[in-house]
Here is the input.
Amino acid sequence: MQLLKSALCLIALSATPALADDAMGMMKMMKGGEVVAIMPDGHMGTMMMKPDDKMMGDMMKMAKPLDHCVMIMTGDDGKTYVVDTSTPEAMKACEKMAK
Here is the structure.
């Protein structure tokens, strides 16, 4: 049933190509070697580092693994915010949204 709802949402969004592109971009899982950068105004970019082993090694030295769900949102003011998901309630909301 959840798959059917998701499929119907994607079909509805495909009527508007710009929205469909954004929705598909946000719904995919990251691949190994992919880096996502998010700017304070909400625009984002991605880069694949797989062929560049030196760059990937340098970036991994700065990286920390995620141990919990992370939420990022854009406010009415146009700024991007990271939501504190350290409480059990926020964690449940985050995990529910990520399903």
About this structure: The CA atoms of residues 34 and 48 lie 4 Å apart. The chain is about 45% helix and 20% strand. The mean pLDDT is 78. The beta strands are 34-38, 44-48, 71-74, 80-83.
